[in-house]
Amino acid sequence: MSVWHAFTQPAAWTMFLLGFSSGLPFLLVSYTVAIWLRKHGIVLKEITMIASAGMFYALKFLWAPLLDHVRLPGALGRLGQRRSWLLLAQLAVMGGLLAMAKLTPAQLPLFVAATLVVAFFGATQDIAVDAYRIEIAPTATQGALVATYSLGYRIALIVTGAGALILADHLDWPVIYFVFALAMLVPILATLFAREPEVVRTTPHSWRAAMQLSVIDPFADFFRRYGWALASITLLFILLFKIPEQATVGGVMGPFYLDMGFTQTQIGTITKLWGVWIGIVGVFVGGAAVARWGAWRSLGVSMVLAGASNLGYLWLIAHPGNLVVLTVVISVENFTLGVLGPPIVAFLSSLVSRDHTATQYALLSSMVNLPGKVLGFFAGGIAMATGYGSYFMLTVVSIVPATLLFAYLWPRFSKDRPGDVAAAKEPSA
Protein backbone atom coordinates (compact mmCIF):
# COMPACT_ATOMS: atom_id res chain seq x y z
CA MET A 1 0.00 0.00 0.00
CA SER A 2 1.28 3.50 -0.86
CA VAL A 3 2.11 5.97 1.92
CA TRP A 4 -0.52 8.39 0.55
CA HIS A 5 -3.28 5.78 0.62
CA ALA A 6 -2.26 4.62 4.09
CA PHE A 7 -2.70 8.10 5.54
CA THR A 8 -5.84 9.06 3.62
CA GLN A 9 -7.93 5.96 4.35
CA PRO A 10 -11.02 6.74 6.48
CA ALA A 11 -9.76 4.54 9.31
CA ALA A 12 -6.73 6.81 9.76
CA TRP A 13 -8.85 9.84 10.61
CA THR A 14 -11.19 7.82 12.77
CA MET A 15 -8.08 6.90 14.75
CA PHE A 16 -7.14 10.58 15.01
CA LEU A 17 -10.39 11.30 16.87
CA LEU A 18 -10.08 8.15 18.98
CA GLY A 19 -6.50 9.15 19.82
CA PHE A 20 -7.76 12.51 21.07
CA SER A 21 -10.39 10.67 23.10
CA SER A 22 -7.76 8.37 24.66
CA GLY A 23 -5.36 11.20 25.47
CA LEU A 24 -7.93 13.56 26.98
CA PRO A 25 -8.49 11.86 30.38
CA PHE A 26 -4.87 10.78 30.96
CA LEU A 27 -3.46 14.02 32.43
CA LEU A 28 -6.81 15.06 33.92
CA VAL A 29 -6.49 12.26 36.50
CA SER A 30 -2.76 12.68 37.14
CA TYR A 31 -0.64 15.76 36.40
CA THR A 32 -3.43 18.31 35.89
CA VAL A 33 -5.66 17.20 38.75
CA ALA A 34 -2.62 17.35 41.06
CA ILE A 35 -2.25 21.06 40.31
CA TRP A 36 -5.97 21.67 40.90
CA LEU A 37 -5.73 19.85 44.25
CA ARG A 38 -2.64 21.83 45.22
CA LYS A 39 -4.38 25.11 44.41
CA HIS A 40 -7.28 23.97 46.57
CA GLY A 41 -4.94 23.49 49.52
CA ILE A 42 -4.76 19.69 49.61
CA VAL A 43 -1.56 18.41 51.23
CA LEU A 44 1.10 16.84 49.02
CA LYS A 45 0.75 13.34 50.50
CA GLU A 46 -2.93 13.20 49.63
CA ILE A 47 -2.31 14.72 46.20
CA THR A 48 0.12 11.99 45.18
CA MET A 49 -2.25 9.29 46.42
CA ILE A 50 -5.16 10.74 44.42
CA ALA A 51 -3.09 11.36 41.30
CA SER A 52 -1.93 7.74 41.37
CA ALA A 53 -5.34 6.86 39.89
CA GLY A 54 -3.46 6.76 36.61
CA MET A 55 -2.05 3.40 37.72
CA PHE A 56 -5.16 1.87 36.15
CA TYR A 57 -3.43 2.38 32.80
CA ALA A 58 -0.61 0.05 33.83
CA LEU A 59 -3.04 -2.63 35.02
CA LYS A 60 -5.50 -2.59 32.14
CA PHE A 61 -4.51 -6.05 30.94
CA LEU A 62 -6.30 -7.48 34.01
CA TRP A 63 -9.78 -6.73 32.65
CA ALA A 64 -8.93 -6.67 28.93
CA PRO A 65 -10.46 -10.17 28.46
CA LEU A 66 -13.88 -8.70 29.19
CA LEU A 67 -13.65 -6.52 26.09
CA ASP A 68 -12.86 -9.56 23.96
CA HIS A 69 -15.54 -11.95 25.20
CA VAL A 70 -18.32 -10.12 27.07
CA ARG A 71 -21.07 -8.68 24.89
CA LEU A 72 -22.81 -5.63 26.33
CA PRO A 73 -26.60 -5.83 26.51
CA GLY A 74 -29.31 -3.68 24.95
CA ALA A 75 -28.78 -0.81 22.55
CA LEU A 76 -25.05 -0.69 23.27
CA GLY A 77 -24.60 -4.32 22.24
CA ARG A 78 -26.17 -3.64 18.86
CA LEU A 79 -23.23 -1.41 17.99
CA GLY A 80 -20.92 -4.44 17.97
CA GLN A 81 -18.24 -5.73 20.33
CA ARG A 82 -15.68 -2.96 19.78
CA ARG A 83 -17.88 0.11 19.35
CA SER A 84 -20.16 -0.83 22.26
CA TRP A 85 -17.27 -0.96 24.72
CA LEU A 86 -15.79 2.18 23.19
CA LEU A 87 -19.02 4.11 23.61
CA LEU A 88 -19.54 2.84 27.17
CA ALA A 89 -16.02 3.93 28.16
CA GLN A 90 -16.35 7.34 26.48
CA LEU A 91 -19.71 8.06 28.13
CA ALA A 92 -18.30 7.03 31.51
CA VAL A 93 -15.24 9.28 31.06
CA MET A 94 -17.50 12.18 30.11
CA GLY A 95 -19.76 11.52 33.09
CA GLY A 96 -16.79 11.24 35.44
CA LEU A 97 -15.33 14.56 34.27
CA LEU A 98 -18.72 16.26 34.72
CA ALA A 99 -18.86 14.80 38.24
CA MET A 100 -15.36 16.13 39.02
CA ALA A 101 -16.41 19.58 37.79
CA LYS A 102 -19.59 19.48 39.87
CA LEU A 103 -18.13 18.06 43.08
CA THR A 104 -14.75 19.87 43.17
CA PRO A 105 -12.12 18.96 45.81
CA ALA A 106 -14.39 20.58 48.41
CA GLN A 107 -16.20 17.22 48.51
CA LEU A 108 -12.97 15.24 48.48
CA PRO A 109 -14.18 11.61 48.97
CA LEU A 110 -16.76 11.90 46.16
CA PHE A 111 -14.27 13.83 44.03
CA VAL A 112 -11.73 11.01 44.43
CA ALA A 113 -14.39 8.47 43.46
CA ALA A 114 -15.15 10.45 40.28
CA THR A 115 -11.41 10.62 39.51
CA LEU A 116 -11.15 6.84 39.83
CA VAL A 117 -14.09 6.41 37.46
CA VAL A 118 -12.39 8.60 34.84
CA ALA A 119 -9.09 6.73 35.24
CA PHE A 120 -10.65 3.26 35.06
CA PHE A 121 -12.78 3.96 32.02
CA GLY A 122 -9.97 5.96 30.40
CA ALA A 123 -7.82 2.82 30.60
CA THR A 124 -10.76 0.72 29.37
CA GLN A 125 -11.12 3.06 26.42
CA ASP A 126 -7.42 2.50 25.60
CA ILE A 127 -8.02 -1.27 25.49
CA ALA A 128 -10.99 -0.85 23.16
CA VAL A 129 -9.22 1.62 20.86
CA ASP A 130 -6.15 -0.62 20.49
CA ALA A 131 -8.31 -3.65 19.68
CA TYR A 132 -10.40 -1.63 17.22
CA ARG A 133 -7.28 -0.34 15.44
CA ILE A 134 -5.80 -3.82 15.07
CA GLU A 135 -9.00 -5.29 13.69
CA ILE A 136 -10.03 -2.49 11.34
CA ALA A 137 -7.06 -2.61 8.94
CA PRO A 138 -4.20 -4.86 7.77
CA THR A 139 -0.75 -4.70 9.34
CA ALA A 140 0.67 -2.83 6.34
CA THR A 141 -1.45 0.23 7.22
CA GLN A 142 -1.01 0.08 11.00
CA GLY A 143 1.86 2.60 10.87
CA ALA A 144 -0.46 5.26 9.43
CA LEU A 145 -3.18 4.43 11.96
CA VAL A 146 -0.69 4.74 14.81
CA ALA A 147 0.58 8.06 13.42
CA THR A 148 -2.87 9.67 13.22
CA TYR A 149 -3.82 8.15 16.58
CA SER A 150 -0.66 9.55 18.15
CA LEU A 151 -1.33 12.97 16.63
CA GLY A 152 -4.76 13.08 18.26
CA TYR A 153 -3.37 11.72 21.52
CA ARG A 154 -0.55 14.25 21.74
CA ILE A 155 -2.85 17.15 20.89
CA ALA A 156 -5.06 16.02 23.77
CA LEU A 157 -2.02 15.98 26.08
CA ILE A 158 -1.11 19.53 25.06
CA VAL A 159 -4.69 20.73 25.58
CA THR A 160 -5.14 19.05 28.97
CA GLY A 161 -1.62 19.85 30.13
CA ALA A 162 -0.27 23.22 29.03
CA GLY A 163 -3.70 24.36 27.79
CA ALA A 164 -5.41 23.62 31.09
CA LEU A 165 -2.76 25.51 33.06
CA ILE A 166 -3.08 28.57 30.83
CA LEU A 167 -6.87 28.50 31.13
CA ALA A 168 -6.59 28.15 34.91
CA ASP A 169 -5.18 31.68 35.08
CA HIS A 170 -8.46 32.98 33.62
CA LEU A 171 -11.16 30.40 34.47
CA ASP A 172 -12.14 28.35 37.51
CA TRP A 173 -11.03 24.72 37.49
CA PRO A 174 -14.61 23.33 37.47
CA VAL A 175 -15.31 25.28 34.26
CA ILE A 176 -12.18 23.83 32.65
CA TYR A 177 -13.16 20.25 33.51
CA PHE A 178 -16.70 20.92 32.28
CA VAL A 179 -15.30 22.07 28.92
CA PHE A 180 -13.09 18.99 28.64
CA ALA A 181 -16.10 16.78 29.42
CA LEU A 182 -18.02 18.36 26.54
CA ALA A 183 -15.00 17.81 24.26
CA MET A 184 -15.70 14.06 24.57
CA LEU A 185 -18.80 14.57 22.41
CA VAL A 186 -16.69 14.70 19.23
CA PRO A 187 -15.07 11.25 19.63
CA ILE A 188 -18.41 9.87 20.83
CA LEU A 189 -19.91 10.89 17.49
CA ALA A 190 -16.92 9.35 15.72
CA THR A 191 -17.59 6.06 17.49
CA LEU A 192 -21.27 6.12 16.52
CA PHE A 193 -20.44 6.65 12.83
CA ALA A 194 -17.38 4.36 12.68
CA ARG A 195 -17.54 0.91 11.08
CA GLU A 196 -17.48 -2.13 13.33
CA PRO A 197 -14.66 -4.58 12.43
CA GLU A 198 -15.94 -7.78 10.83
CA VAL A 199 -14.49 -10.39 13.17
CA VAL A 200 -16.14 -13.71 14.05
CA ARG A 201 -16.15 -14.15 17.83
CA THR A 202 -16.69 -17.20 20.01
CA THR A 203 -19.29 -16.95 22.76
CA PRO A 204 -18.62 -19.21 25.79
CA HIS A 205 -21.57 -21.26 27.11
CA SER A 206 -20.42 -21.71 30.72
CA TRP A 207 -18.31 -20.00 33.36
CA ARG A 208 -15.55 -22.58 32.98
CA ALA A 209 -15.55 -22.14 29.21
CA ALA A 210 -15.48 -18.36 29.66
CA MET A 211 -12.41 -18.56 31.92
CA GLN A 212 -10.72 -20.89 29.47
CA LEU A 213 -11.46 -18.62 26.53
CA SER A 214 -10.75 -15.25 28.13
CA VAL A 215 -7.87 -15.95 30.55
CA ILE A 216 -6.05 -19.16 29.66
CA ASP A 217 -6.36 -19.28 25.86
CA PRO A 218 -4.84 -15.83 25.14
CA PHE A 219 -1.59 -16.87 26.86
CA ALA A 220 -1.57 -20.44 25.58
CA ASP A 221 -2.38 -19.23 22.06
CA PHE A 222 0.74 -17.05 21.85
CA PHE A 223 3.10 -19.85 22.85
CA ARG A 224 1.20 -22.36 20.69
CA ARG A 225 1.54 -20.20 17.57
CA TYR A 226 5.25 -19.40 18.00
CA GLY A 227 6.54 -22.27 20.09
CA TRP A 228 8.09 -21.89 23.54
CA ALA A 229 11.58 -20.93 22.34
CA LEU A 230 10.59 -18.27 19.80
CA ALA A 231 7.79 -16.92 22.00
CA SER A 232 10.09 -16.60 25.04
CA ILE A 233 12.86 -14.85 23.09
CA THR A 234 10.32 -12.51 21.48
CA LEU A 235 8.88 -11.60 24.89
CA LEU A 236 12.39 -10.98 26.23
CA PHE A 237 13.07 -8.68 23.28
CA ILE A 238 9.81 -6.81 24.00
CA LEU A 239 10.89 -6.30 27.61
CA LEU A 240 14.32 -4.92 26.67
CA PHE A 241 14.20 -2.77 23.56
CA LYS A 242 12.63 0.34 25.11
CA ILE A 243 14.84 0.55 28.19
CA PRO A 244 16.93 3.52 26.87
CA GLU A 245 13.76 5.53 26.30
CA GLN A 246 12.20 4.60 29.63
CA ALA A 247 15.38 5.54 31.47
CA THR A 248 14.94 9.18 30.36
CA VAL A 249 11.23 9.66 31.03
CA GLY A 250 11.18 8.98 34.76
CA GLY A 251 11.70 11.14 37.82
CA VAL A 252 15.42 11.52 37.22
CA MET A 253 15.06 13.95 34.30
CA GLY A 254 13.43 16.90 36.10
CA PRO A 255 16.21 17.14 38.70
CA PHE A 256 18.78 16.67 35.93
CA TYR A 257 17.47 19.67 33.96
CA LEU A 258 17.40 21.77 37.13
CA ASP A 259 20.94 20.71 38.01
CA MET A 260 22.00 21.77 34.51
CA GLY A 261 20.89 25.32 35.39
CA PHE A 262 17.60 25.60 33.50
CA THR A 263 14.53 27.31 34.91
CA GLN A 264 11.18 25.58 35.21
CA THR A 265 9.76 27.78 32.45
CA GLN A 266 12.61 26.82 30.11
CA ILE A 267 12.20 23.14 30.94
CA GLY A 268 8.44 23.21 30.40
CA THR A 269 8.56 25.19 27.17
CA ILE A 270 11.25 23.12 25.48
CA THR A 271 10.44 19.63 26.79
CA LYS A 272 6.62 19.76 27.03
CA LEU A 273 5.65 22.06 24.17
CA TRP A 274 8.42 22.14 21.58
CA GLY A 275 9.40 18.53 22.21
CA VAL A 276 5.82 17.27 21.82
CA TRP A 277 5.45 18.84 18.37
CA ILE A 278 8.81 17.48 17.23
CA GLY A 279 7.63 14.08 18.47
CA ILE A 280 4.48 14.39 16.34
CA VAL A 281 6.66 14.95 13.25
CA GLY A 282 8.64 11.85 14.19
CA VAL A 283 5.45 9.80 14.57
CA PHE A 284 4.41 10.60 11.00
CA VAL A 285 7.88 9.70 9.72
CA GLY A 286 7.68 6.43 11.63
CA GLY A 287 4.22 5.75 10.23
CA ALA A 288 5.47 6.36 6.69
CA ALA A 289 8.45 4.05 7.35
CA VAL A 290 6.13 1.23 8.42
CA ALA A 291 3.96 1.76 5.33
CA ARG A 292 7.07 1.67 3.11
CA TRP A 293 9.38 -0.91 4.74
CA GLY A 294 7.21 -2.80 7.21
CA ALA A 295 7.12 -2.91 11.00
CA TRP A 296 10.11 -5.16 11.70
CA ARG A 297 12.76 -3.34 9.63
CA SER A 298 11.53 0.05 10.83
CA LEU A 299 11.62 -1.15 14.43
CA GLY A 300 15.26 -2.26 14.20
CA VAL A 301 16.52 1.05 12.82
CA SER A 302 14.41 3.29 15.02
CA MET A 303 15.17 1.50 18.30
CA VAL A 304 18.93 1.94 17.72
CA LEU A 305 18.53 5.61 16.78
CA ALA A 306 16.30 6.27 19.80
CA GLY A 307 18.78 4.55 22.14
CA ALA A 308 21.75 6.42 20.68
CA SER A 309 19.94 9.76 21.06
CA ASN A 310 20.67 9.61 24.80
CA LEU A 311 24.28 10.44 23.93
CA GLY A 312 23.03 13.99 23.45
CA TYR A 313 22.73 14.35 27.20
CA LEU A 314 26.52 14.02 27.48
CA TRP A 315 26.76 17.07 25.23
CA LEU A 316 24.29 18.89 27.46
CA ILE A 317 26.36 18.05 30.54
CA ALA A 318 29.32 19.72 28.83
CA HIS A 319 27.21 22.84 28.12
CA PRO A 320 25.01 23.39 31.20
CA GLY A 321 22.42 26.14 30.92
CA ASN A 322 22.77 26.40 27.13
CA LEU A 323 19.25 26.65 25.67
CA VAL A 324 20.41 25.95 22.12
CA VAL A 325 22.03 22.68 23.18
CA LEU A 326 18.97 21.71 25.24
CA THR A 327 16.69 22.42 22.28
CA VAL A 328 18.80 20.33 19.92
CA VAL A 329 19.05 17.42 22.39
CA ILE A 330 15.31 17.43 23.10
CA SER A 331 14.53 17.73 19.39
CA VAL A 332 16.68 14.74 18.45
CA GLU A 333 15.37 12.63 21.33
CA ASN A 334 11.68 13.41 20.75
CA PHE A 335 11.99 12.96 16.98
CA THR A 336 13.65 9.54 17.26
CA LEU A 337 11.18 8.43 19.95
CA GLY A 338 8.34 9.60 17.73
CA VAL A 339 9.73 7.56 14.83
CA LEU A 340 9.99 4.52 17.12
CA GLY A 341 6.31 4.64 18.16
CA PRO A 342 4.54 3.37 14.99
CA PRO A 343 6.93 0.42 14.40
CA ILE A 344 6.42 -0.68 18.02
CA VAL A 345 2.64 -0.63 17.78
CA ALA A 346 2.59 -2.20 14.31
CA PHE A 347 4.92 -5.00 15.43
CA LEU A 348 2.97 -5.74 18.61
CA SER A 349 -0.25 -5.65 16.60
CA SER A 350 1.17 -8.21 14.16
CA LEU A 351 1.81 -10.61 17.05
CA VAL A 352 -1.79 -10.52 18.23
CA SER A 353 -4.33 -13.20 17.40
CA ARG A 354 -7.70 -11.95 16.16
CA ASP A 355 -9.35 -14.31 18.66
CA HIS A 356 -7.82 -12.45 21.63
CA THR A 357 -7.07 -8.99 20.26
CA ALA A 358 -7.72 -6.84 23.32
CA THR A 359 -6.21 -9.24 25.86
CA GLN A 360 -2.99 -10.03 24.01
CA TYR A 361 -2.30 -6.46 22.92
CA ALA A 362 -2.93 -5.09 26.43
CA LEU A 363 -0.52 -7.67 27.84
CA LEU A 364 2.21 -7.06 25.25
CA SER A 365 1.98 -3.28 25.56
CA SER A 366 2.17 -3.59 29.35
CA MET A 367 5.32 -5.71 29.00
CA VAL A 368 6.91 -3.00 26.85
CA ASN A 369 6.45 -0.48 29.65
CA LEU A 370 7.11 -2.77 32.62
CA PRO A 371 10.89 -2.12 32.80
CA GLY A 372 10.15 1.62 32.98
CA LYS A 373 8.04 1.11 36.10
CA VAL A 374 10.90 -0.82 37.71
CA LEU A 375 13.55 1.70 36.60
CA GLY A 376 11.52 4.47 38.21
CA PHE A 377 12.44 3.11 41.63
CA PHE A 378 16.18 2.86 40.98
CA ALA A 379 17.10 5.52 38.39
CA GLY A 380 17.79 8.22 40.96
CA GLY A 381 20.02 5.96 43.04
CA ILE A 382 21.98 4.85 39.98
CA ALA A 383 22.47 8.45 38.82
CA MET A 384 23.62 9.51 42.31
CA ALA A 385 26.05 6.60 42.56
CA THR A 386 27.54 6.90 39.07
CA GLY A 387 26.94 10.53 38.08
CA TYR A 388 24.68 11.74 35.28
CA GLY A 389 27.25 11.09 32.55
CA SER A 390 27.76 7.44 33.45
CA TYR A 391 24.02 6.98 33.91
CA PHE A 392 23.26 8.15 30.37
CA MET A 393 26.08 6.02 28.99
CA LEU A 394 24.50 3.00 30.70
CA THR A 395 21.17 3.78 29.04
CA VAL A 396 22.85 3.77 25.62
CA VAL A 397 24.73 0.53 26.31
CA SER A 398 21.49 -1.09 27.44
CA ILE A 399 20.30 -1.22 23.82
CA VAL A 400 23.00 -3.81 23.00
CA PRO A 401 21.14 -6.89 24.36
CA ALA A 402 17.97 -5.91 22.49
CA THR A 403 19.98 -5.37 19.29
CA LEU A 404 21.51 -8.86 19.59
CA LEU A 405 18.05 -10.35 20.10
CA PHE A 406 16.80 -8.40 17.09
CA ALA A 407 19.56 -9.92 14.96
CA TYR A 408 18.64 -13.39 16.24
CA LEU A 409 14.94 -12.86 15.46
CA TRP A 410 15.59 -11.27 12.05
CA PRO A 411 15.17 -14.48 9.97
CA ARG A 412 11.74 -15.08 11.55
CA PHE A 413 10.13 -11.66 11.40
CA SER A 414 11.84 -9.97 8.44
CA LYS A 415 10.21 -12.31 5.92
CA ASP A 416 7.05 -13.51 7.64
CA ARG A 417 5.58 -10.78 9.80
CA PRO A 418 2.88 -12.59 11.81
CA GLY A 419 -0.60 -11.23 11.40
CA ASP A 420 -0.26 -9.99 7.81
CA VAL A 421 -2.36 -12.75 6.27
CA ALA A 422 -5.07 -12.68 8.92
CA ALA A 423 -5.14 -8.92 9.04
CA ALA A 424 -5.46 -8.60 5.29
CA LYS A 425 -8.86 -10.25 5.52
CA GLU A 426 -10.18 -7.40 7.67
CA PRO A 427 -11.99 -4.37 6.23
CA SER A 428 -9.85 -1.27 5.66
CA ALA A 429 -12.49 1.41 6.25
TrEMBL record:
<protein>
    <submittedName>
        <fullName>PAT family beta-lactamase induction signal transducer AmpG</fullName>
    </submittedName>
</protein>
<feature type="transmembrane region" description="Helical">
    <location>
        <begin position="174"/>
        <end position="194"/>
    </location>
</feature>
<dbReference type="InterPro" id="IPR020846">
    <property type="entry name" value="MFS_dom"/>
</dbReference>
<feature type="transmembrane region" description="Helical">
    <location>
        <begin position="391"/>
        <end position="410"/>
    </location>
</feature>
<feature type="transmembrane region" description="Helical">
    <location>
        <begin position="324"/>
        <end position="349"/>
    </location>
</feature>
<feature type="transmembrane region" description="Helical">
    <location>
        <begin position="226"/>
        <end position="243"/>
    </location>
</feature>
<feature type="transmembrane region" description="Helical">
    <location>
        <begin position="84"/>
        <end position="104"/>
    </location>
</feature>
<feature type="transmembrane region" description="Helical">
    <location>
        <begin position="42"/>
        <end position="63"/>
    </location>
</feature>
<feature type="transmembrane region" description="Helical">
    <location>
        <begin position="274"/>
        <end position="291"/>
    </location>
</feature>
<keyword id="KW-1133">Transmembrane helix</keyword>
<feature type="transmembrane region" description="Helical">
    <location>
        <begin position="298"/>
        <end position="318"/>
    </location>
</feature>
<dbReference type="InterPro" id="IPR011701">
    <property type="entry name" value="MFS"/>
</dbReference>
<keyword id="KW-0472">Membrane</keyword>
<feature type="transmembrane region" description="Helical">
    <location>
        <begin position="12"/>
        <end position="36"/>
    </location>
</feature>
<feature type="transmembrane region" description="Helical">
    <location>
        <begin position="361"/>
        <end position="385"/>
    </location>
</feature>
<feature type="domain" description="Major facilitator superfamily (MFS) profile">
    <location>
        <begin position="11"/>
        <end position="414"/>
    </location>
</feature>
<keyword id="KW-0813">Transport</keyword>
<dbReference type="Pfam" id="PF07690">
    <property type="entry name" value="MFS_1"/>
</dbReference>
<keyword id="KW-0812">Transmembrane</keyword>
<dbReference type="InterPro" id="IPR036259">
    <property type="entry name" value="MFS_trans_sf"/>
</dbReference>
<dbReference type="InterPro" id="IPR004752">
    <property type="entry name" value="AmpG_permease/AT-1"/>
</dbReference>
<feature type="transmembrane region" description="Helical">
    <location>
        <begin position="110"/>
        <end position="132"/>
    </location>
</feature>
<feature type="transmembrane region" description="Helical">
    <location>
        <begin position="144"/>
        <end position="168"/>
    </location>
</feature>
